[in-house]
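ok so i was messing around last nite and threw this chain in just to see what happens. nothing serious, just curious
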Amino acid sequence: MAKERLDKLIASTGRWSRREVKTLVREGRVLVDGRIAASAEDKCDPLTARISVNGEELFYREHTYVMLHKPAGVLSATEDGRGETVLDLLAPEYRKIGLFPVGRLDKDTEGLLLLTDDGALAHDLLAPKKHVDKVYFVRTDGALDDADCKAFVQGITLGDGLECLPAKLEILKSDAQSEALITIHEGKFHQIKRMFGALGHEVTALSRLTFGALRLPDELPPGQYRELTEEELEEARRRLYAHLAQAEEDIKAGRVHPIDEVFDEIMRELDSLSLDDPHNQND
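result:
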């Protein structure tokens, strides 16, 4: 791995700014491989150098992955003048390292939200062609039935003409207030609410339970978070790139025309451009 400046490496922990690191170095409080660092501009290999500050050894990691149980009333954004954001729920050291939410949940939607500084993984998790499953618990007004399940499987066309990818609806309770699990593979503006609205049902509660291989732990209450375990991250990557490998095999076998797939992805990306507006939230 390429060598990086000492101040950059230490500041990447989110605990000190580069200016603060320079002060620490001048005061002789930074050691590199057991020796007092001579300059904050010194370069070292982050994978092999042993760096300590005030006697505490630091451990380098290229990216950070945080699982948050997003509560209702919080915006899925890095900053927003209209209210509290998901980054406001994190400790200061996490807010300083460039984390951002992977996708968005409506302000009134709860559930699993991944925050990271790994742009490549985030892009792959959100790309429609990767077919990453997202499972939600939903509560609606009005009884759900088999006709609703069939409509989701066939793919619902919304009022503005947007054709949603086929989805899965599993009814848990059908009554004046119904409960169900819904699995989708994309995330358009207010998609789940609009899909149920197209069938005459109003969504009264929505919570994301899974995102790909990641599952919201029962012991993680709303507003709390933790870093992903190595096992969770490895499984998320394994399942994600297994989908990609299958897609490539389909193209080679002629089951999917690459031009059609590229066109479909471009059109979906264009549909998602409205996400730049902070008022637009997914699902």
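not much to say yet. The two ends are 39 Å apart (CA to CA).
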